[in-house]
Amino acid sequence: MVKCQVVMDAMDRIAPRALAEDWDNPGLLTGSPAQNVHRILVCLDVSEAIVDRAIAEDYDMIVSHHPLIFRSLKQVRTDLPLGGRLQKLLAHGIAVFAAHTNLDIAAGGVNDVLAARIGLAAAEPFVVTKTGELVKLAVYVPAAYASQVRTAISRAGAGFIGNYSCCTFNVAGQGTFLPQAGTHPFLGEPGTLTTVDEVRIETILPAQIQSRVLRAMLKAHPYEEPAYDLYPLKNPGEPAGLGRIGKLPQAMTVAAFARQVCSGLQAAYVRLIRAGDRPVHKVALCSGSGAEFIAKAAFQGADAYVTGDVKYHDAQQAVDLGIHVIDAGHFPTEFPVVAELADRLRAVLQKTRGGAEVTADTTARDFFEVVS
Fold it and tell me: Which domains are seen in the chain, by residue range?
């Protein structure tokens, strides 16, 4: 058992809420951060079937990709589908948490899972929405406890530079302090000037995880009043954004690539918009509904673009721009993240006291089917 807040913190590590688009509505949508959670059901949509399953199988929390509540509510009509679901959830004390565009954008999220499924290598953000702000942390630690503090701040997410983790710079020196009356110093005595061999540990971290890293540092630090500095940096952080763009290991025909996409996503079908005989090597993608970025994909030199919810005039634009488009559907391009998210959430919670059972929904199906 864990508190709902622990699950929320775990999800913020996986898909930081700060990455979400301004119009989005991620986070805790029903329930309380203080409630106990034993069982978690991870899904794409909080459908009627998911709510009924959560009730029947005693789930305390639902973690979904699509927010149950997206727009402002002016009334809760329990005779209508959304109001009825909310009534059930509240009556049975089931918390609902959503990670939407933040999970689309996050490393290892929806678009990275999609890229891997269709065979795209070394994919990078396609539509950059944020360039993260970085800060530098410098903390002074007794030499014997430097390793303990370094480990704590690294596990909290500090010290990443590109594909290198646990990056720190360490300088040995001497710290002095005079504990005042009423203090309980870890070293020294009140009223006596104390000199200690210390290490100054420097590292960098995204500003969005600053609070988490500081909590970890303060918990691991032996001093009653740790000394530390935070500096804003002009260095740009890692770009983050919707979609991905990269290259296939080798070029192939668009028909072969379309079949590869269909197979990789285990979709019943895909729709191919063919723009001539151009071979496919460079590919852009955007999970869910991303037809608005067809022109951007063409201007960035993509041979093909994979997304869902493509309309007739979107297809016409693609042909005019000379870029193939594969409409693999909204559901097939997003549903693969459910199992991946459940695995990642389970792994994070296993490191906490208590833990919780995490189950991925495998029953959801696409609304669309082919009738011929």
Answer: 2-105+334-360 (3.40.1390.30), 131-238 (3.30.70.120), 253-328 (3.40.1390.30)
